[in-house]
């Protein structure tokens, strides 16, 4: 499976780029990044200062965040204003630092590397500039040591693949992937759920996989009765639930990793900022503010293990 498939979006695309879908686990004794040979570090070509240190942010009184656009319930535009779980996490980070949050909603690139280059350590080729912090960045230790320009920290949620379903279609037992040999299932086109179901042994499920432009659209189709189930990241499914729908997280045979941790990214020059942001997130997890943000959006909260 290519990590550069066009149409892959946001954290799902990033998970594909990290090689977490339908792959065998690495040998237990392999050292982290043991096979990686560091390349020459690229030079910053922008005329702008790439990122700002913590002192500069505190002195000027605001911090900038990059968040993915059209990505409910995480980040999206509502009445001309950024909204969503990630936006509120950015607000609590800014509050902890005593500065104003400023958000830029950005389109997902072909790969996570593209997004980090554009919005954290170098800047896009056309229009826009880097942010101090990028929200909703999936974490993988092997990938992290290959992107030396970025600090990955502030992990705040464990995401996982789940299946939503119509209660009237499955009154007794919630569906598992094998059911989709006969039953219909909605997915976001070119998402990891789409890749997984399409590549299920022998392609047995392919005919019953119905593709939509987004997970939200797949959930709308499920609510309208166009499909019996929908598959995708748990939070995105929960955001589309109604009284007639339910969701569960069954075992997923052949899935390399159906769970991953999401956090933030900061330019590697500004580790003091990374530490301050991480402290703000840990404090919000410990005192319950993070869980309240998720609950306010109708989402279950699955925190990573605190350091």
What would your notes on this structure say?
- It is a single chain.
- By secondary structure, the protein is of the alpha/beta class.
- Helices cover 29% and strands 23% of the residues.
- It is built from 10 helices and 11 strands.
- It starts with 9 loop residues before the first helix and ends in an 11-residue tail after the last helix.
- It has helices at residues 10-17, 54-60, 85-97, 112-121, 141-144, 192-198, 215-223, 234-239, 271-286, 289-296; strands spanning 62-68, 76-78, 81-83, 100-106, 133-139, 150-166, 185-188, 209-212, 229-233, 245-248, 259-267.
Count up the helices: 10
Low-confidence residue ranges: 1-9, 16-30
What is Rg? Answer: 20 Å
Instruction: Classify the secondary structure makeup into a structural class.
Output: alpha/beta
Distance between the termini: 33 Å
The share of residues in extended strands comes to: 15-25%
Largest sheet: 9 strands, mixed
Query: Share of helix among residues?
Result: 25-40%
N to C succession of SSEs: HHEEEHEHEHEEHEHEHEEHH
Q: Per the principal axes of the C-alpha atoms, what is the gross shape?
A: globular
Number of strands: 11
Question: What would the average pLDDT be, to the nearest integer?
Answer: 86
